[in-house]
Design goal:
- This protein is 48% helix and 15% strand.
- The protein has 326 residues and is of the alpha/beta class.
- The protein folds into two domains: 48 residues; 256 residues, 2-enoyl-CoA Hydratase, Chain A, domain 1 (Alpha-Beta Complex).
- Helix 9 links the parallel strand 5 and strand 6.
- Helix 10 packs across helix 11.
- The chain starts with 9 loop residues before the first helix and ends in a 10-residue tail after the last helix.
Length: 326
């Protein structure tokens, strides 16, 4: 059940509430209003198609953060069997903002690692709003090493506003933990597939994103900084910054899946149900798992040396630059 509507979805909310009310009125009564309900449902579908066919970068950012959107544990429950969660980094403590463990996708053994934001105030605080501490990244790396040892592919789900910037996290080596993941993932002798399922924020996302194949859900985002952070730094004027500044920053950052596919940063876009992944988590999970199986079938045939070489070349060719002889 949808519990929350974004501002640009308000016209849909009114119609869907009306449909629910009509269904309640007709329930168990000799009143046939099925035609009226079908008419309204078609109107909702047409209106939703119209709204979601012309989303701005800022609106996509809001969808990526939607509180009803499926998180890592939701996809694990929908996609896998025999999931065993592993805890702790064997150095400091466990970090609940990152979930990591082993599981099977259609009987294929894999390691799964992902950010977990949490639902409701209590769980969000427990999960630190999906912002990992260094021990979270070290736990993730520990599970990756286990996967490498037992020749299991690694699947990562990215969904974080960024690594936690608190004093304690910095004291325990936040930057070093992220850098270590980048280095180790680049050399991991097993296939890695990463999927951005919500927000891909800064180095906190990149620490799980060095992969042989990187995909994004249709309404997810991936960027070096949030639109709010960008606006606060680059667009601050007298007075407060507002939604218009956030919208402008989101456009400038080119953070949508469509932008990143055009720039050849990602390998593909996974379509979402009309209205977003939260409208049909089962269908979204099915799309992700089917893609993972197809890609793993290809990657598993590659010798380790070729896998590592292609991963290296993949990142070397990103971006553009010019050379000048002085």
């Amino acid at each position: 059940m949808i519990r929350y509507y974004l501002e640009f979805e308000r016209p849909l909310e009114e119609l869907e509430l009306k449909i629910d009310e009509l269904k309640r009125l007709s329930d168990g009564k000799d009143i046939d209003i099925s035609k009226e309900i079908k008419k309204l449902e078609k109107k909702v579908k047409d209106l939703r198609s119209e709204i979601f066919s012309s989303l701005t970068a800022w609106q996509k950012t809001l969808i990526a953060r939607h509180p009803d959107r499926p998180y890592t544990l939701d996809y694990i429950n929908l996609m896998t069997t025999d999931f065993v969660e592993l805890h702790g980094d064997r150095r400091y403590s466990d970090d609940p903002s990152i979930v990591a463990g082993i599981a099977k996708i259609h009987n294929m053994p894999v390691a799964i690692i992902g950010h977990q934001k949490g639902r409701g105030t209590k769980e969000r605080i427990y999960r630190n709003f999906g912002q990992p501490h260094p021990e979270g990244y070290r736990k993730a790396l520990r599970v990756m090493k286990i996967a490498e040892k037992f020749k299991r592919p690694i699947i990562t789900f990215i969904d974080t506003p960024g690594a936690f910037p608190g004093i304690g996290a910095e004291e325990r080596g936040q930057a070093e933990a992220i850098a270590m993941n980048l280095m180790e993932m680049s050399q991991m002798k097993t296939p890695i597939i990463s999927v951005v399922i919500g927000e891909g924020g800064s180095g906190g996302a990149l620490a799980l994103g060095v992969a042989d194949r990187l995909f994004m859900l249709e309404h997810s985002t991936y960027s070096v900084i949030s639109p709010e952070g960008c606006a606060a730094i680059l667009m601050r004027k007298e007075g407060e910054i507002g939604t218009d500044d956030f919208s402008r920053a989101a456009e400038i950052l080119k953070l949508t899946a469509q932008d990143l596919l055009r720039f050849k940063i990602i390998d593909g876009i996974i379509p979402e149900p009309l209205g977003g992944a939260h409208r049909d988590p089962e269908e979204t999970a099915k799309s992700i798992s089917e893609l993972i199986l197809v890609v793993l079938e290809e990657l598993n045939t590659k010798p380790t040396g070729k896998l590592l070489e292609e991963r290296y070349r993949r990142y070397r060719k990103m971006g553009s630059f010019t050379e000048e002889v002085l």
